[in-house]
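User: Need the bound-state model for pyridoxal-5'-phosphate:
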Amino acid sequence: MLPQIPGKNYPNEVCLNGEWMQPENARISVFDRGFMLGDALYEVIPFYDGKVFALEEHLDRLKYSLSQIRFDFEVEKLVPYILQAVKRSFFAEEDAAVYLQLSRGTAPRTHFFPKSSEPNFLVYSFPVKLKDFEEKSWRLLLAEDIRWHRCDIKTTSYLANTMLNDESHRLGLDETLLFRDGKITEGSHSTAFFVKENVIYTHPEGPEILSGITRKIVIDLCTELALDIREEAYSLKDFKHLDEVFLTGTTTQVMTISEIFTEKEKIFSRPEAGPITRKLQKAFKEKTRKSQA
Ligand SMILES: Cc1ncc(COP(=O)(O)O)c(C=O)c1O
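Assistant: Bound-state model below.
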């Protein structure tokens, strides 16, 4: 039997290179560059009540990542499989997400990018609990950002992210908040926002962070709500004056942060979500669930 993780399931069906099959029948070469070198990209696309959300934005980010790694691929070709994935898995009315992975494909192992390789793509859907996210809160570990200098590329090479995330997991915490040169970059799989004296701060786009789709949606919501949002990195030295913290991400949505710890001490505590976090959670919910707005 395959290893199991409580609360996590393998999908019953996956789409490999356009063909639907049971996962145990899905085979790719051991010379796949995603497997050997992490030469692969990914996206996670949410479906609210069975309806895709921000698909264009996810495809645009995939195009950007492709351009950055000099990988020619027509992204539109993936759309039918992304949409089929949810329908085929009986999530047509439910909340779900689609995992999409695209590797440069199979070729003899080289450090340079081969001129001809046949890309491999994988698509599958999984159920995800997107409702009532505002009732939860997360506790964070603060740790030094040890990742590479191209965090803007959404690659499957997430070993540093998983090492960092595992540090908080081992301590019974929910996510790791990262800093570099005295400034917060982001979470190991999320974007970080800080509120101080009614001003909201988040790291500007660039190679230090992944340009989150949810980040962009929340920034737009701040503008619509006439909230003061600044794309400026938040300094560790300003932690003592912090009023609110929240994280964003496709399945994280807009998550209240109740506590932040270093290895030695607690540096932030706010048991209940603050007023700005609440406002944005409500607006985000309305945007993603238009029928409930
Ligand atoms: C490092 C990192 N930052 C931010 C995010 C949030 O991005 P999005 O809102 O597009 O899910 C993710 C999501 O996987 C991530 O891995």
